[in-house]
Amino acid sequence: MRAVVYRETGPSSVLEVVERDLPEPGPGEVRIRVIRSGVNPTDWKFRAGMMAGHDEVVPGQDGAGVVDAVGPDVEAYAVGDRVWTVLAQHGRPYGTAAEFTVQPVGRVAPLDDAASYDLGASLGVPAVTAHRALTAAEDGPHRLGPGTLAGRVVLVAGGAGAVGNAAIQLARWSGATVVTTVSSDEKADLARAAGADHVVNYRTSDTTEEIRAIAPDGVDIAVEVAPAQNIGIDLDVLKEHGLVSIYANNGGDELTMPLRAAFGKNLRFQFLILYTLHQHLVQAAVEDVNAAVAAGALRVGADAGVPLHHFPLQQTAAAQDAVEEGAVGKVLVDVADD
Hints:
CATH superfamily of the largest domain: Medium-chain alcohol dehydrogenases, catalytic domain
Number of strands: 15
Largest sheet: 7 strands, mixed
Helix content: 25-40%
Structural class: alpha/beta
CATH topology of the largest domain: Quinone Oxidoreductase, Chain A, domain 1
Radius of gyration: 20 Å
CATH architecture of the largest domain: Alpha-Beta Complex
């Protein structure tokens, strides 16, 4: 089988396409014929030096394809099942940038018959991250679904990004009013396509003033991609007992904030990363994400605010470069035909 590998960390030039033996699933594992591999920022960050410890790595946390072999004791899946992956390469050397990947059943989820492989390969990191960001409130729902966020206002910073887009779609499906911030008119159009009720261009307006005009009683949840830059806005617009869910460090690695402002509102700050998230929370996210997919509430494509950028397997390096350079939408590697 063909696989993309790297044996040392560094620039995308360390990636190469090689031939490898077909892997066999062990107990509790399935082998997936990969159709699409999704590319996330963690893929290039790991390759650039954040991860070591393996002689050879096949990148790719997200992917979608068809089960083509099952190991002993596997009852949840059968040959021919359509699936998507969750954290496929976390702590393991072999991810989804290959024609076949072997995964534990805990890192595999069923893909709805009506869902495309493009969508399946776009779900893992973005949708599960967005789910955790929306469900981490101490006094709020820990699951998402129609009505679970009814009456709440959600602020999504950077609504044109992959996680931001997923947060908009999941929040709207769950009944929330969604306000999002963007940096351009083009990104505003994408955020509206995702379903945002209100879009604020932070480059051309007073962001705090606009959000407070939209939500005079305050925002319940802020899904935050750039806390170092936006913490002042978050403190101003959140209501008492509000939640700030921080999933990235865009714009700076150091966060400084006035403590009294946070004390005064009894705010909750949830820092999140999927790799240490408890398995029961990952599983809850997978179940809710699948329900949203089945309901048609999670979509990809330009009409859903997620332009797709396709690369063949042999151009995985270019795909990772596109993500590192800030491609808007979702970058996918076409491993095989649908």
